[in-house]
């Protein structure tokens, strides 16, 4: 990537009311200091706009990227080590370019609607992404603001989620790795269920900073609502996901070279675009805990 000229003056464009996504130019993320006014401004931007695109961050080193996330909160070390960067366990590598026959990270991650780590008792507060190699035909990531969806939810669906608990499961998204060879699917499922057993969260959560009510479900990880029959769940979950995933709810981020983005996993679900066969793709992700409860009522 090209090295930039001198950093220009800080300029911020916030999302229009009801929309998501702030755009920041002229920020030197390597110079950000924990607790400084700029740091506080960035945290508030993330909560207020849900998605923040920091432009022109060309050529950050792995160390600089990790340091940046460490200033925003506590970087996550993902529970499955085969996703890790070999020298920086905080960096989750989504990659299909393997040099010298050496596998780096995991290919084809997150191509379904989800929030990161919804299947854990304490899901991930923020996600940041820093792409290194862009595929030629797919340079976008899609988002849906689940606060807005909750506000627009028709009464015949809202009555199922208000006060309800939803079950989230990660097992069907498990990526088979080299060490799984010779294991049966039953053994694999049992092991994944042991590592990340199904969890429940309120179907409607309250944001600890903004106070917004958020429909906290996704077709990627949410399998059912507690207390409904199998048949009723099939019908209601499909109707909910059909409503959630309507085209008018989708915000698309079109990636540009140098983009570093951070979003709040509480109100947003997201989906990576599919990469065409033969196209190279590599991006770094670091999850960040902001050390607030994920939702009101959940311990930190
Ligand atoms: Fe994701």
UniProtKB/TrEMBL annotation:
One of its GO terms (molecular function) is 2-oxoglutarate-dependent dioxygenase activity. Pfam families: TauD (PF02668). Keywords: Dioxygenase, Iron, Metal-binding, Oxidoreductase. The keyword Manganese does not apply. Residues 16-279 form the TauD/TfdA-like domain. The keyword Iron applies. Transmembrane segments: none annotated. InterPro entries: TauD-like_sf, TauD/TfdA-like, TfdA_dioxygenase. Gene3D superfamilies: Clavaminate synthase-like. Belongs to the TfdA dioxygenase family. This is Putative dioxygenase.
